[in-house]
Amino acid sequence: MRLSTDKFFFLSFFIFSLLFLSATARPFVLVLSQDDLTDAAPSAADDDGASSSTSDWDEFGDSDTKREEELDPGSWRPIFEPDSELADPATDDEAMYYSGVTKMVTAVSSGDPRLMEEAAAEIEAAAAGGYPHAQSALGFLYNMGVTRERNGAKAFMYHHFAANGGNMQSKMALAYTYSRQDMYDKAVKLYAELAEVAVNSFLISKDSPVIEPIRIHNGAEENKEALRKSRGEEDEDFQILEYQAQKGNALAMYKIGIFYYFGLRGLRRDHVKALSWFSKAVDKGEPRSMELLGEIYARGAGVERNYTKAFEWLKLASRQQLYSAYNGMGYLYVKGYGVDKKNNTKAKEYFEKAAENEEAGGNYNLGVMYLKGIGVKRDVKLACKFFILAANKGQPKAFYQLAKMFHTGVGLKLNLPMATGLYKLVAERGPWSSLS
Questions:
Q1: Residues 368, 369, 373, 379, CA torsion sign
Q2: Which pTM was predicted?
Q3: Domains of the chain (ranges plus CATH)?
Q4: Residue 287 vs residues 59, 251, 291, 331: alpha-carbon distances, Å
Q5: Which residues contact 338 (CB under 8 A, 6 or more apart)?
Q6: pLDDT 10s digit of each residue in the chain, 436 long?
Q7: Under 8 Å between Cβ of 223 and 418
Q8: Is 354 exposed, middle or buried (0-12, 13-18, 19+ CB in 10 A)?
Q9: Which residues contact 235 (CB under 8 A, 6 or more apart)?
Q10: Are 140 and 134 in contact (CB under 8 A)?
Q11: Which of 23, 146, 188, 271 has its Cβ near the most Cβ atoms within 10 Å?
Q12: How far apart are the C-alpha atoms of 148 and 138, rounded to whole Å?
């Protein structure tokens, strides 16, 4: 089948939707009534008390947290980030897949239909060999009718095989298909799995404070500005900002630190450089860098992990009315890191200070304390209240906790459609939705 110009143009937008470089959270207001609550007692499995898992907390992941490459196998990230560490292909099918994907992206950028057909052929060959990520890509091609006759049944089949092989994009596709058909018993299981992985990815790095919607170049003039802003250290705007920072501008130092810390504006994440710029900004009295230094030392990002220093920096930040720093301090008291000993009472005080100052993380962490009975009498309904407050401020992990409550019927009445919708909101923020 020859690829028509219309289909080729359509594919460029298909890739835009499949691989956005940053995802924005949609506005969402959750309102529950008394009828949604349940008095059902939690099971013994749910009643784990203080043995909360790391992913329950909205702070610093352990050093053995999985990398994004492990959370999102088969990602196209190495194609868009030339400096990414891409391991040598383990099989010929894997090599064929990445070759095909690379050609596909090049074809979209250059407007070459023949190269697109060659790319699709390589992807189909890898899929025939049983490589799940190639099966996923082929499923999308059949679903969109690009280089292949549009065929929903074949698209579903390839996504089914790919999902069984661990491909997250295909799991998202299947979950969406099931939810559209009101098959919530199947959709909720897939979205729950995806949401859990997404939550674990939040531990690798907090959400970027900068929203950067960037589209892949399709030859259109309006995309050149977006591409220019993705040139990293070669970008003229970045070089001007760097010059200002070198001249002692504290705000410029902080911004450059942010760019390196989160890997923004075409820069590769570099925690060592981020640490350096945040340290220089702090020396100039820039307060927001204090909290980020606290996170860096707590996570051991670009520096040896040091909880004592982390607590000191977070405390300094809180004195500058950066109320989100109270969450980090509370977390350290819950864990007993960088402080004399565990102190749940002290932790609760810090979480309350954060919550009183409209900090969503404070409400979320109080919800975890009441859900698990950590330092307080377990109160699932009160936990639900705090999670709703946090969710309505956009805290994604609060949506995850509420989804679990609707899914299991603990604290909230069993409601699979609601659980599916909330899991979906979290799953859409997973590493498969970001290449930055």
A1: negative
A2: 0.77
A3: 231-415 (1.25.40.10)
A4: 19, 10, 8, 21
A5: 298, 306, 307, 308, 309, 310, 311, 332
A6: 445 545 444 444 344 334 333 333 444 555 666 666 665 555 544 544 434 454 555 454 443 455 556 666 777 666 655 545 556 778 999 999 999 988 988 888 788 889 999 999 999 999 999 999 999 999 999 999 989 999 999 999 999 999 999 999 999 999 999 999 999 999 999 999 999 988 877 754 444 443 343 333 344 444 445 444 556 777 888 899 999 999 999 999 999 999 998 888 778 888 899 999 999 999 999 999 999 999 999 988 889 999 999 999 999 999 999 999 999 999 999 999 999 999 999 999 999 999 999 999 999 999 999 999 999 999 999 999 999 999 999 899 999 999 999 999 988 999 999 999 999 999 998 877 654 3
A7: no
A8: buried
A9: 228, 229, 265, 266
A10: no
A11: 188
A12: 9
At 140, which amino acid appears? F
Structure tokens at 190: 């897939």
Tokens at residue 349, please?
Answer: 């005080």
